[in-house]
Amino acid sequence: MLSKGNPTTCSAPYFALRSATPLNDATARQRAEFPPRAAAILSRRTLKTDYPALAAALLPGMRVLDAGCGTGAMTLGMAQAVAPARVVGVDVSADLLTKARQQRQAQENLSFVQADLYALPFEAEFDVVVAARVLQWLAEAQRAVRELARVLRPGGRLYLLDYQHYQATLEPAPPASMRHFRECYLAWRADAGFQNNMADQLPTLLAGAGLNDIQTVPQLETVRRGEPDFESRIGLWGEVAATRGHQVVAAGYLSEAEREQAEREFAVWARDQAQMQTLTLSSASASKPTR
């Protein structure tokens, strides 16, 4: 098990160097920036595999906004499900949107717009608004959910999907270097105002946005050795160390030597010892009142 329950304290040698001053919005936004090398993680996702509750709910004719669409891999699945209705993917990253446009241009009912999730350039015009694995990277999640609700038409439905990072499990236990990296990574996130237990907060956020008929669906993503996608999925934390890890080092939460050791030892563990990984997520959805 990586960790479960309450967050642990990062005790890396460099940890004491971080400032006691609360982080400002600019720092939170900087930490949320997606490293270019990590785009492959997003591009592997599909709607059916990575958000089954939403895949089951979409019908032809629904107008959809995918907020925080990244490279548009799941957005493509949404566009295919609701065609010929309009689907718009929104992201703050110009680099990710360039990849999205290059890779999804054949889907005629799909377009992409660069925009801030706190200030969307739309009115109340979508039947479905989606934010999948996005709120975990926002320091003001309630503000964002209110904005997502604003662009829903009356009667439209908002779908949120996110992680409970403290309940992730790996069997057998990964190397101590990776457990230490993960503690520092979660501390780096938490200090920016990001919620590592965002999955647990989704119903409250939906209620705080004035939505009703709140429904939750647990989503456990378990992969076992011998399954077709085991190698790509079991390496997730190694990819985090190789990409996000450099941001954690730059912020002073651990040394580059510790990051490199975690990446290297985890790769060997994933190849030779790993048997199972489970990521814990929750989907929550709610409707906008008609009056």
List the helices and strands and how they pair.
Blueprint: H1 25-32, H2 39-43, H3 47-50, H4 52-57, E1 64-67, H5 73-82, E2 87-91, H6 94-104, E3 110-114, E4 126-132, H7 141-150, E5 152-163, E6 169-171, H8 176-191, H9 198-208, E7 212-224, H10 230-234, H11 236-242, H12 244-250, H13 256-272, E8 276-287
Helix pairs in contact: 8-13, 11-13
3D structure, described in words:
Mean pLDDT is 92; it is low at 3-9 and 11-22. It is built from 13 helices and 8 strands. The chain has a single domain, classed as Vaccinia Virus protein VP39 (Rossmann fold). It has 291 residues and is α/β, with parallel strands linked by helices. 40% of the residues lie in helices and 21% in strands. 44% of the residues are buried.
Helical residue percent?
A: 40-55%
Name the shape in a single word: globular
* CATH superfamily heading: Vaccinia Virus protein VP39
**Strand portion, in percent?**
15-25%
Report the biggest beta sheet as strand number plus sense, adding barrel if it closes. 8 strands, mixed
SSE order, one letter for each helix or strand: HHHHEHEHEEHEEHHEHHHHE
Give me the CATH fold name. Rossmann fold
Tally of discrete structural domains: 1
The SS-based structural class is: alpha/beta
**Could you give the distance between the termini?**
47 Å
Q: State the low-pLDDT regions, or none.
A: 3-9, 11-22
Radius of gyration, whole Å: 19 Å
- Average pLDDT, to the nearest integer? 92
Number of H- or I-type helical stretches: 13
CATH class: Alpha Beta
CATH architecture: 3-Layer(aba) Sandwich
Number of strands: 8
